[in-house]
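Researcher: I'd like a candidate sequence for this fold, 452 residues long. If you have to choose between options at a position, lean toward the conservative one.
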């Protein structure tokens, strides 16, 4: 089990945890192994063991040997990557560091709490991580070089499928393919003008009294994520690309302390004040007001969608054409209404992972059937109406070539990549210098790490 977890030909490496990094700083270091021009330190081993303990693994002698082999494999890849002159740019390292640090800090109430817990500033930890991250990126690039040409043919997929014992074939969950058409109720222009005028009034008052922004946001903003006494309308250290494009375009064109004119996003109307902007991050405070949709406008949207549905059922219009002509959903409008699975880019969805509200609708449909117009609340909190077409449904079943070719192809390709890596390791070890401390010579390694 341990050897399976620490499989030396994993295509990506687990990130070193902050706890593991801290533990390494407390170890009196020594070299425990050499692979080519690369060294494995005692602190590398102890840091990885600390990380595994934090993940709930018991570190017995067999597990420790497996960790040593993982580190040896990583050093073999790094050594070859340097021989092959593979490069890792500062931007690549910096981007990975920023993401990792942001994740760790997010586990704490604030950055100060994070720094207090680890006894180091975020900048110090970032520098501690830098060599580790660079090595990991280099490792991944080298693995990519080894496996980049590994592809499977349809015949190889068939051979792979036939090689699996019938009682070992994977069980595939129930899956659905479905399409949708979305209609948004039209907002009355006088309603929008009322909201804009209200925000303009706030802007004028806040330009005279900037200190009141937090009070106004707490009292009048409708953003559930920031309109409270703690955040006072503000989002701190937001990475560029996090917010919707319309929001960021308006905010990032501001000067610090400048308040925007009212602007619109899918969430409603905003005014925003840029607090600070530094590199990839910015801090912004905003007030969000939404336009009330009148019941008469809801009924108009429902009637329009019902008319579209009738046209489709009478074969006057195909569902895919109707989606392209009328749907207001950006993600599916240009895809013939088909809802794409964000995890794999395909159109099949495991039913257990579909939005429960949609599942309730799909469960009442037969393949080819279209639902009645359904009121729906989107991610931005806006109400719309939708009709759903169930394109196909498959019950839970044992994997087969007809229904699951794509999945089987991925598994077969992954196995071939593993074999390519195994072959590369064995061949490379014949011509690469390696040396281990005596205490690690007795391990039952998968590969020949002991110098002949």
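Model: Candidate sequence:
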């Amino acid at each position: 089990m341990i050897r399976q977890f620490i499989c030396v030909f994993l295509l990506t490496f687990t990130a070193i945890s902050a706890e593991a990094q801290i533990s390494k700083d407390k170890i009196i270091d020594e070299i425990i192994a050499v692979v080519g021009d690369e060294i494995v330190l005692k602190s590398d081993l102890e840091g990885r063991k600390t990380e595994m303990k934090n993940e709930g693994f018991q570190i017995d002698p067999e597990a420790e040997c497996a960790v040593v082999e993982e580190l040896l494999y990583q050093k073999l890849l790094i050594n070859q990557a340097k021989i092959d002159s593979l490069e890792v740019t500062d931007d690549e390292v910096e981007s990975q560091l920023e993401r990792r640090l942001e994740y760790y800090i997010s586990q704490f109430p604030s950055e100060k709490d994070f720094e207090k817990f680890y006894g180091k500033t975020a900048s110090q930890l970032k520098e501690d991580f830098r060599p580790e991250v660079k090595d990991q990126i280099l490792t991944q690039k080298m693995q990519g070089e080894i496996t980049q040409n590994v592809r499977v043919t349809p015949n190889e997929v068939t051979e792979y499928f036939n090689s699996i014992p019938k009682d070992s074939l994977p069980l595939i969950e129930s899956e659905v393919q479905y399409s949708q058409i979305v209609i948004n109720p039209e907002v009355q222009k006088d309603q929008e003008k009322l909201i804009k005028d209200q925000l303009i009034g706030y802007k004028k008052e806040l330009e005279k009294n900037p200190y009141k922004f937090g009070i106004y946001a707490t009292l009048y903003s409708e953003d559930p994520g920031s309109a409270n006494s703690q955040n006072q309308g503000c989002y701190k250290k937001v990475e560029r690309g996090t917010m919707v494009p319309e929001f960021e375009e308006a905010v990032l064109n501001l000067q610090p302390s400048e308040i925007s004119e009212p602007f619109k996003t899918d969430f409603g109307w905003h005014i925003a004040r840029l607090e600070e902007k530094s590199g990839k991050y910015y801090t912004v405070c905003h007030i969000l007001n939404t336009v009330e949709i009148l019941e008469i406008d809801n009924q108009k949207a429902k009637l329009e969608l019902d008319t579209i549905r009738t046209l489709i059922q009478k074969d006057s219009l195909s569902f895919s054409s109707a989606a392209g002509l009328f749907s207001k959903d950006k993600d599916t409008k240009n895809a013939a209404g088909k809802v794409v699975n964000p995890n794999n880019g395909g159109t099949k969805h495991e039913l257990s992972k579909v939005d429960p509200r949609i599942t309730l609708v799909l469960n009442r449909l037969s393949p080819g059937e279209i639902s009645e117009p359904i009121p729906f609340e989107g991610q931005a909190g806006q109400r719309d109406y939708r009709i759903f077409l169930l394109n196909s449904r498959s019950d839970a079943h044992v994997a087969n070539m007809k229904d699951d070719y794509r999945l089987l192809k991925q598994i077969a390709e992954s196995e071939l990549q593993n074999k390519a890596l195994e072959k590369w390791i064995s061949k490379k070890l014949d011509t690469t210098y390696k040396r281990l401390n005596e205490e690690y010579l007795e391990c039952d390694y998968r590969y020949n790490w002991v110098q002949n």
